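$ ./design --mode recover --in tokens.txt
reading tokens...
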């Protein structure tokens, strides 16, 4: 379970507990940039051009609480792949 166009996984946890069938797994997660999840970052200044393809120090800003349907679809696939790889507990 994940939130839609805003919100957090914490708001879903009580519903998740009530709706989970016995002997099943249910995952709640925050999409990227929401609550405690990591977010994308953007450069706040242009990349230096003196030495292309070399390391450089950059100032960045987090992109938080922005709804991006493509990113959210990717987050769903990542969550499903992560859950599929988890060992089942008995």
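writing sequence...
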């Amino acid at each position: 379970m994940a939130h839609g166009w805003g919100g957090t996984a914490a708001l879903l946890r009580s519903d998740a507990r009530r709706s989970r069938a016995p002997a099943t797994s249910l995952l709640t997660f925050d999409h990227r940039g929401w609550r405690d999840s990591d977010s994308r970052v953007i450069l706040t200044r242009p990349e230096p051009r003196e030495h292309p393809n070399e390391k450089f120090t950059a100032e960045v800003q987090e992109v938080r609480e922005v709804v991006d349907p493509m990113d959210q679809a990717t987050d769903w696939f990542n969550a499903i792949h992560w859950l599929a790889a988890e060992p089942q507990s008995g």
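exit 0
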